């Protein structure tokens, strides 16, 4: 897929292996009616892009966070599943699931919540687990 966008600005607030970008050129699949001017993250390998409507991300069950995920491969009506934990630890854990009911393109709007601040590592799967990517997100 792709590793990093060309001509993008790297913003503060990235963690682990994930940078936060603004601007730059993304693949066509990540640009279908994409929100303009928002910061975004790229999962590893580059088959998913998350547009951050909340930046910086906030921790806590009452936090109002939103990420719009674009995936490179057809969803086949399967949900996006995510499991996460603090980077370098196995607990606590956080999970979210989003049905494949948003359009246009291969998109999933999510509102991930985590119980504590810090760098969280998430594994995202869709198409019944056939596609898998990794992303690290910093929650304040």
Topology at a glance:
Layout: E1 9-15, E2 18-22, E3 40-42, E4 48-52, E5 67-71, E6 80-86, E7 94-98, E8 107-110, E9 118-126, E10 131-139
Antiparallel strand pairs: 1-2, 2-3, 3-4, 4-5, 5-8, 6-7, 6-9, 9-10
Please state the second-level CATH architecture: Sandwich
CATH topology: Immunoglobulin-like
| Helix/strand order, N-terminal first | EEEEEEEEEE
Terminal CA distance: 30 Å
Largest beta-sheet details: 6 strands, antiparallel
Task: Please compute the radius of gyration using only Cα atoms.
Answer: 14 Å
Overall residue-averaged pLDDT value:
92
Q: Please work out how many helical segments DSSP would assign.
A: 0
* Total of domains: 1
Can you count the beta strands?
Answer: 10
How would you describe what is shown here?
This protein has no helices and ten strands. The strands form two sheets. Strands 1-2-3-4-5-8 form a six-stranded antiparallel β-sheet, with no helix packed on it. The chain has strands at 9-15, 18-22, 40-42, 48-52, 67-71, 80-86, 94-98, 107-110, 118-126, 131-139. It has one domain (9-139): Immunoglobulin-like (Sandwich). The protein is 0% helix and 42% strand. A hairpin with a 2-residue loop joins β1 (9-15) and β2 (18-22). The mean pLDDT is 92. The protein starts with 8 loop residues before the first strand and ends with a strand. It has 140 residues and is mainly beta.
Kindly list the characteristics that best describe this protein.
six-stranded antiparallel beta sheet, Immunoglobulin-like, single chain, mainly beta, four-stranded antiparallel beta sheet
């Amino acid at each position: 897929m792709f590793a990093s966008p060309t001509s993008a600005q790297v913003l503060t607030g990235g963690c682990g292996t994930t940078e936060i970008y603004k601007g730059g050129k993304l693949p066509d699949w990540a640009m279908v009616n994409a929100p303009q001017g928002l910061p975004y993250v790229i999962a590893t390998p580059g088959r998913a892009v998350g547009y951050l409507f909340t930046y910086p991300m906030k921790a806590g069950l009452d936090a109002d966070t939103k990420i719009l995920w674009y995936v490179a491969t057809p969803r086949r009506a399967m949900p996006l599943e995510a499991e996460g934990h603090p980077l370098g630890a196995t607990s606590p854990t956080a999970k979210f699931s989003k049905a494949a009911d948003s359009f246009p393109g291969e998109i999933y709007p999510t509102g991930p919540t985590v119980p504590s601040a810090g760098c969280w590592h998430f594994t995202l799967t869709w198409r019944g687990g056939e596609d898998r990517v990794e992303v690290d997100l910093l929650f304040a």
